[in-house]
Write a structure and sequence with these properties.
By secondary structure, the protein is of the alpha+beta class. It has helices spanning 18-23, 31-54, 62-70, 75-90, 100-106, 112-122, 129-138, 144-156, 163-168, 245-258, 264-271, 279-300, and strands spanning 173-176, 181-185, 192-193, 198-203, 211-214, 219-224, 231-232, 237-243. The longest helix is centred in the first third of the chain and has 24 residues, at 31-54. The termini are far apart.
Length: 301
Amino acid sequence: MPSKSRPQEIEAAPAPDMSSQAAGSGALGSPRNTVIVIVPILLVLITFLFWYQTWFGRRLSDREMTQDLADTSVPHKTQHALAQLSDRIARGDPTAKRWYPQLLALAQNQEPQLRLEAAWTMGQDNHSEEFHQALRKLIDDSVPMVRRNAALGLARFDDGVAEPQLRSMLQPFTLTAPDSGTIKFRIKEQDAVRNGSIIARLHPAGSDQQRDVLSPVGGTIARLLIKNGATATAGDEVAVIDPDEGQVIEALRALYLVGQPQDLDDVERFDRGASNMSERVRQQAEATARAIRQRSAKGKS
């Protein structure tokens, strides 16, 4: 009988040389692997710290509030402090009054962003006559958004001087060229823009320099009034910007308090239902129109 073949013996694999692996690039404790682990952690940590330092929801200590309201060399820190101060005033925190002198100083700062945020913050305390008078000065500011925040604040003081500015917030804004030159648009009709968005760039004749045309308000580009690539002269109308919903809501709420019969045409336009506006806007416009009529009727009686 043929002999049975013996099963083939499997030769055991040699034990791995742990010392050589430890020295190799794939070892857990190797410098390369340490870098692979640490670098992502550092990136996440740096990103978190940057977000945390710039997040306006981070509560500031009293010392930080005092320092950041006084030192405007880092504007976002001052803006953060203003946002926190606004919240404290709105909550009725009596300790907020310690920073009122600094807030009044910021209302006169040369930086428009700080003036407009100071105007909004002052509007949170409609019992301060100092704030009332400061807002009355800001209603004539050269920057549209400062004027608008001042108007919103003055409405809380029941001050009718805000009414014309509030009405303008319901109307389209016409943007003009700040200088002369060939215009190159960066946006198109129906694009949404924010305060500070670049609408176009002007290229003066015979110069390599260019100047940005910035939107001083937020909203939607309704129409471009000049051809792309055409020559614009300083003061020429270049675009019409429709107000955004947030601005309309704020203006309607303020006009609920101080609106006059001459505002009804603009208010009722939103009551009839404006394009790109929600039902919330229509409801506020309806309430505002009703309040204006009731106030007018009382004045006549």
